[in-house]
Write a structure and sequence with these properties.
13 strands; Transferase, Pyrimidine Nucleoside Phosphorylase, Chain A, domain 3; 17 helices; 16% strand; Pyrimidine Nucleoside Phosphorylase, Chain A, domain 2; binds uracil; 431 residues; 46% helix; alpha/beta; Aldehyde Oxidoreductase, domain 3; 4-stranded antiparallel sheet; 6-stranded mixed sheet; single chain
């Protein structure tokens, strides 16, 4: 075998054997295959695609490139949840505590923000002292004791993905269904929970822009999981507007706390309720009972208490969870008002995600330091009616130059029309 033959075989649209795929992945990880050949391999996959079996083989070779975790010391049903990336997506911070309060064991390794999308790890770092870099033993103990832990992705987890992702990022090969599916699933399988819950975002603020490609990605990831004897669900959710109202690290944590207190935005609550119900129903609970069980752990405060316990276990300041007013606020707030009247037709989530980054809430360069208090809070969502001069959103900022840098983009965020549009949050669920 040699890399050129394998690249040519894929370039010409042929099916690769599992040995050929493993040869390429091993060579990329041990650096015997140089970046230019790895990039050509990725581009050939981007254009010619992969069969389901090839993608399963690719996922296996990637998973085996690093440390495969052993969660057998955790008692109970172990669950991992993953979002393909969206704007305002703080679901893990609500769903994790709900599932822990219901008795599940939530084990999560999360990433930092990527491009216009925020990352759970950055959000958690807005809580003073919160440590996402605890040892694996402490992670296991935490999940056993309180049912929930969210930590950063360890360097040992699928090194092949780190190398491939960095190359994809700079060679125009990110948006490939087999490459995204193998990247996500190799990491989920290496962590090794019993159930993997995928939230596949669709629309302008997501990597998958249309429903057909999102469905293809979701179906493929479920099939990969099944090939490894794992239970996998995928919910397809609308990202044609941000989820909830808040975008930005501490603003999103505050919104997650409010949701666990029963006062969150309706779409975020609906999504977390639906996902929790699916998990309960997969354990044999009837749908109506499942809803009651979720509502109960919100009402009696046990879900919020799980978040407090996790923050305490990981060294964070629990006072700000009990009283979100204690989060450090931005110095200034800028109000943006409507220049028309009518129904909100569309909200550009992609631009809003980038704006939050440019204010300092995300990284433009890999080593940028995050400003946790900045971001955007929406006042109106798609299908709401607005009058001229109604408040559409507020921008929370600390640096006037950063605000000035985005001012010219503000008129492009909201689209207003004459007719009320129908919107749907949960587009499909795939088992
Ligand atoms: N998230 C991942 O982990 N990998 C991808 O390829 C895309 C989103």
């Amino acid at each position: 075998m040699n890399p050129v033959e394998i690249i040519v075989k894929k370039r010409d649209g042929n099916i690769l054997s599992s040995e050929e795929i493993k040869y390429m992945i091993d060579g990329i990880v041990d650096k015997s295959i140089p970046d230019y050949q790895a990039s050509s391999f990725l581009m050939a996959i981007y254009f010619k695609g992969m069969t389901e079996n090839e993608t399963i083989d690719l996922t296996r070779s990637m998973e085996e490139s690093g440390y495969v975790y052993d969660l057998s010391k955790i008692d109970g049903i172990k669950i991992d949840k993953h979002s393909t990336g969206g704007v305002g997506d703080k679901t893990s911070l609500v769903l994790g505590p709900i599932l822990a309060a219901l008795g599940y064991k939530v084990c999560k390794m999360s990433g930092r923000g990527l491009g216009h999308t925020g990352g759970t790890i950055d959000k958690l770092h807005s809580i003073d002292g919160f440590d996402t870099n605890i040892s694996f033993d402490k992670f296991i103990n935490e999940v056993n004791e309180i049912g929930l832990s969210i930590i950063g992705q360890s360097k040992d987890l699928v090194p092949a993905d780190k190398l491939l992702y960095e190359l994809r990022d700079v060679t125009g090969t990110v948006e490939s269904i087999p490459l995204i599916a193998s990247s996500i699933m190799s990491k989920k399988l290496a962590l090794g929970t019993d159930l993997i819950y995928l939230d596949v975002k669709v629309g302008n603020g997501a990597f998958m822009k249309d429903l057909d490609s999102a469905k293809a990605l979701a179906n493929l990831m479920v099939k990969i999981g099944n090939a490894f004897n794992k239970k996998v669900f995928a919910t397809l959710t609308n990202m044609d507007e941000p989820l909830g109202l808040a975008i930005g690290n501490s603003l999103e944590v505050i919104e997650a706390i409010n949701t666990l207190n029963g006062n969150g935005p309706s779409d975020l609550f609906e999504l977390c309720l639906d996902m929790s119900k699916e998990v309960l129903m997969s354990s044999g609970v009837y749908e109506d009972d499942a809803k009651d069980m979720v509502l109960k752990v919100i009402k009696d405060g046990s879900a919020l208490n799980k978040l407090i316990e996790m923050v305490k276990y990981q060294g964070g300041d629990t006072e700000c969870i009990k009283n979100p007013n204690k989060f450090k606020k931005s110095l200034y707030v800028y109000e943006y008002r409507s220049k028309n009247k009518g129904y909100i037709k569309h909200i550009d989530s992609y631009k809003l995600g980038l704006m939050s980054s440019k204010l300092g809430g995300g990284r433009i360069k890999i080593d940028d330091v995050i400003d946790y208090s900045v971001g955007i809070v929406l006042n109106k969502k798609v299908s709401d009616y607005v009058e001229n001069k109604d408040l559409l959103f507020t921008i929370h900022y600390n640096d006037i130059d950063k605000l000035n840098n985005i001012l010219k983009e503000l008129d492009e965020i909201y689209e207003i029309g004459d007719e009320k549009v129908n919107k749907k949050l949960i587009l499909d669920t795939i088992y």
